[in-house]
Amino acid sequence: MRILAAMSGGVDSAVAAARAVEAGHDVVGVHLALSRAGGTLRTGSRGCCTIEDAMDARRAADRLGIPFYVWDFSERFRDDVIDDFVAEYRAGRTPNPCMRCNEKIKFAALLERALELGFDAVCTGHYALLVDGPEGRELHRASDAAKDQSYVLGVLTAEQLAHTYFPLGTTPSKALVRAEAAERGLSVAQKPDSHDICFIPDGDTRGWLADKVGAAAGDIVDRSGAVVGAHEGAHAYTVGQRRGLSLGVPAPDGKPRFVLEVRPVSNTVVVGPREALATARIAGERFTWAGRAPASESFACQVQIRAHAEPVDADARIEDGVITVEPAVPFDGVAPGQTAVLYEGTRVIGQFTIDTTTSAVPAPV
């Protein structure tokens, strides 16, 4: 196959490209320039897609003896990932930019260009398995549960899965990938993994959002609507947050209170007891299937609401264009804007963006 290897400059994508070459494929490496800030530098494990990452990717490609290019996707990344991130926070939701990047950049914009240029597939260093089943290609969890990335790949469609290549999916551990990189003479063998949001490399999400969204003071209220404090910008609060609330009125029972909801229209933050974070139902209109769709509009599944959360048994149903999921055990602190990925065992069924949540503990009347 002709394979376009997306090389981030990290150890995973470098080893993935190496395995593609070793398997006999015709491989070309490409690094995506996602920032217009030409002087962007990496700080330890923070950030990605920096100058250092581009140079590391080029060195890896040279070591493998494959052609290498840098493609400027910064405008598309700004429109589809950064602007979406800001818009979601303005709407009081908590988005996952890694999901949007996979959906809109790596497996949409990049794959589209790859196919136009005659490539058969895009190769990445994600830890996930592709299985060719009787009804088409399926996406499954990786062999290494600790590194499994099927959650952030849940946005991929059947057409995208058909042109995807994940060489690391069967690798038992990240330590083996690093050891292999060292054996292959790849300089990124011990490079730290990237953490946090790549376009906020200093990790100060609150400050970054304040600059983009603006900070307007407002009230913090309890579930009855009584004012119990004040905030300097609702964007700085997320569902489940406990610290930094600066409440002027203590709870009647003296127990800590947590953020339950962010209301951007009224610029208020709602707080309440820990038990009110239990979520009995989630629903959303924006859903896709990773391969074959469920045979029925009502089906049993397992649901994962964060990249490293434990999956929860649940019942799902689709009605009037809305998917609703009710877990067997309530979720803990779910925020609108998060992504729910549905599984059947190890297979990814699909995903949806959570629009509404229903607490398992009704608000006092």
Automatic annotation (TrEMBL):
Catalysed reactions, semicolon-separated: S-sulfanyl-L-cysteinyl-[protein] + uridine(34) in tRNA + AH2 + ATP = 2-thiouridine(34) in tRNA + L-cysteinyl-[protein] + A + AMP + diphosphate + H(+)
UniProt domain tRNA-specific 2-thiouridylase MnmA-like central: residue ranges: 208-272
MF term (GO), any: tRNA-uridine 2-sulfurtransferase activity
Cystine residue pairs: C101-C198
Keyword field: ATP-binding, Cytoplasm, Disulfide bond, Nucleotide-binding, RNA-binding, Transferase, tRNA processing, tRNA-binding
Site location (Interaction with tRNA): H126, Q338
Cross-referenced InterPro entries: MnmA-like (IPR004506), MnmA-like_C (IPR046885), MnmA-like_central (IPR046884), MnmA-like_central_sf (IPR023382), Rossmann-like_a/b/a_fold (IPR014729)
BP-aspect Gene Ontology terms: tRNA wobble position uridine thiolation
Localisation per UniProt entry: Cytoplasm
Gene3D superfamilies to which the protein is assigned, alphabetical: Adenine nucleotide alpha hydrolases-like domains (2.30.30.280), HUPs (3.40.50.620), Translation factors (2.40.30.10)
Primary location: cytoplasm
Annotated ranges, domain tRNA-specific 2-thiouridylase MnmA-like C-terminal: 282-350
Active-site residues per Swiss-Prot or TrEMBL entry: C101 (nucleophile), C198 (cysteine persulfide intermediate)
EC identifiers of the protein: 2.8.1.13
CDD domains, sorted: MnmA_TRMU-like
Ranges where the record places region Interaction with tRNA: 147-149
Residues that hold ATP according to the record: A6, M7, S8, G9, G10, V11, D12, S13, L32, G125
GO cellular component terms, semicolon-separated: cytoplasm
Cited function: Catalyzes the 2-thiolation of uridine at the wobble position (U34) of tRNA, leading to the formation of s(2)U34.
HAMAP family: tRNA_thiouridyl_MnmA
Family note: Belongs to the MnmA/TRMU family.
Protein name: tRNA-specific 2-thiouridylase MnmA
Organism: Microbacterium saccharophilum
Species lineage: Bacteria, Bacillati, Actinomycetota, Actinomycetes, Micrococcales
Gene: mnmA
